[in-house]
Design a protein that fits this description.
single chain, two-stranded antiparallel ribbon, mainly beta, Lipocalin, 14 strands, 6-stranded antiparallel β-barrel
């Protein structure tokens, strides 16, 4: 009887040791392997008065670029995200707000990359930025302001430090820009879009520069 008890306790001890070892050798948390910024375009209007927290959002890349490992991300690739915060100004509120977060980059061929991204800058639609109606694009009230300069798309690999250059001939917004460019009654602070108007409304075609960490 004592021998059986000893065997049973030995089995329990071995199992607990194995469990403890498995717990300490679990997969490490995902870390950023590259970071940078690139322009995207809204396919449809985002309106803070009609959105709610955790609603899914989808944008598409406004130009083609390569990642540090040589992977081509074609123009029109999808970037998925969600609404973190969406409020419409009501009586007594000073402003309306919209906060977006991006979590997945979908590349042609079925490849998916997890990302952690937020809005770095906002530009009017490309077509409107060339004409007199630039000021009315993208916010609930419209407005005017200084436009951004053109620059190449770039991501920086944190290990190699190499820049990833655009392969698209389409003019793109300045990926180093921050804040709201060429539009007024709209501000951007730490990824939070705010408006003194009744809502934050980004029309289809509005371009965003999103800052992302690519997770490994």
């Amino acid at each position: 009887m004592n021998r059986l008890l000893v065997v049973f306790l030995s089995i329990l001890l071995a199992a607990s040791l194995c469990f403890g070892q498995a717990a300490t050798t679990s997969a490490p948390a995902a870390t950023a392997v590259a970071h940078g910024a690139f322009p995207v375009k809204l396919a449809k209007t985002l309106d803070s008065s009609k959105l709610k927290q955790d609603d899914t959002i989808e944008v598409e890349t406004a130009g083609s670029f390569k990642l540090a490992d040589g992977t081509l991300v074609p123009k029109g690739s999808k970037v998925m995200g969600r609404v973190v915060l969406a409020t419409a100004r009501s009586k007594g509120d000073p402003e309306s707000q919209l906060t977006l977060a991006f979590s997945k980059l979908l590349i042609a061929g079925g490849k998916e990359l997890p990302v952690n991204g937020s809005v770095q800058a906002v530009f009017p639609p490309a077509e409107e930025s060339m004409g007199p109606n630039m000021a009315t694009a993208g916010t609930s009230q419209g407005g005017s302001g200084a436009g951004g300069s053109s620059a190449g798309v770039g991501l920086t690999n944190t290990k190699a430090g190499s820049n990833m250059e655009t392969t698209s001939s389409q003019p793109v917004v300045d990926t180093k820009a921050t804040g709201v460019q060429g539009m007024h009654d709209l501000s951007l602070d730490n990824g939070v879009l705010s408006s003194k108007g009744k809502n934050v409304k980004l029309n289809g075609g509005v371009r965003l520069v999103i800052r992302v960490d690519i997770m490994g």
